[in-house]
Amino acid sequence: MKKERQGFGLWVLAWPIFIEVFLQTLLGTVDTLMVSRISDDAVAVVGISNQLFGALTTLFTTFAGGAGILIAQRMGSKRFSEARTIAIMGVSVSLILGIVVSIILFFYAGPIAGILNISPELLSLSNIYISYVGGGLFLVGMIASLGTAIRNTGNTRGPMYTGVIINVIHIILNYTFIFGMFGLPQLGLAGIAISSIISRLVGVIMLYTMFRGSFEIKIRLRDFRIFNGKLFKEIIRIAWPLGINSSCWVFSQLIVYSFLAALGAEALAARTYLNTLESFCFTLGYAIALAGQIQIAHLFGAGKLKEAYRSAYRTLYIGLAIVSANMLLLFLFGRNLLGYFTSDPRIIAIGISLLALNLLLQPCKMLNMGMGNALNAIGDTRYTMYTSIVSMSIIGVGCSYWFGISLGWGLTGIYCCMIADEFVRGMLVLMRWRGRKVIRQADIGLSEGNASLHGAGKRSTSLTI
């Protein structure tokens, strides 16, 4: 029991997630730095394309995310066989959806670039990047689904080690293919695509090896034919609102990026550079929120409802303190950091103008993520979905267009709307958590179950006498 409690402790779960996500962020930063040596136009293409990839990735990782919550709950309630079955189905469905998305991106890069409002002078670069990086996007789905399943068994170190190796391979291959080292031709953005596919393939192989041994009964290839209709419906019940929630956020960001594209390549590049710096500042907060979700799901599955309720607030307070401190550092040193990415004074000026707004944006994002993940952990995914649909469509997208484009406030107006959206959703999920609706229902269910068992025990004793 002591070993189990330690395995699902907040910091035990969080620090490997932090290192893993930090390395992923570092990988994105290295990509951005290397691409910036090609041109700022190439950076703009990478920025908007990665928003598209993020949006599409949620479509085939959502099922794995819902499965991950149920895995942690089943581990908490000692139903290990069901946890294993859920994990297998989560990976299988994510793989199928990932392959479909990758095929579409590979063959329809041109029309997709048109939908994103990518300017004509950037089309040749975007076709290369969307076709080849997007064509291998199913590997990202496999990494996400395998990593999610492994993490929710309490093993957050395995995905972390994999992340280290992926990053090392990717950075070395990036340098080799982009700049034509060791006698190879200079491939530019195509080099990043090749590097991404190779490093991600290595990651899939490593995670799959860990995944096979994550449960008491080893997982074999023939086990991927397993299908349990009852468990599948339970995954769907949690996953579809979770998917719409995630998709709403990512697609709203994609639409906002299309607004930025309409403002010009300079605004788009400035947002891409600043987003890279923001990601570093938010990484530990994100790790705390994700670790909190795993811990709360485990406690909820174990019937420790009071501990689960308190755990959400502890996660939130720690996350807010960390994110606020990091954003203050970015505010103080942001001008110098932007200089590492570009020498264009207009792009730097745009980025600097947004640094103060980030002091509000990131804590609001932590509030929304921390309490939203807590609700997701106990299966209350429909509420977070409803708040996302309403707030993102009206404030995140509608107001961004109104203030940023129609009224001419530009990037500053869009950022203010992003802050308002995160704050509104954060307050709504906080009020929902304080209402304890799902926890009260679970408490009643546990009480009725205990009463039923107690009554059965009495009848058994009476019959024995």
From TrEMBL:
Compartments it resides in: Cell membrane
GO terms for cellular component: plasma membrane
Major subcellular location class: membrane
Listed InterPro entries: MATE_fam, MdtK-like, YsiQ
Keywords associated with the record: Cell membrane, Membrane, Transmembrane, Transmembrane helix, Transport
Record's keyword annotation contains RNA-binding: no
Membrane-spanning parts: 7-27, 52-73, 85-109, 129-149, 161-182, 188-211, 238-263, 283-303, 315-333, 345-362, 383-403, 409-431
Protein name from the UniProt record: MATE family efflux transporter
Organism: Paenibacillus odorifer
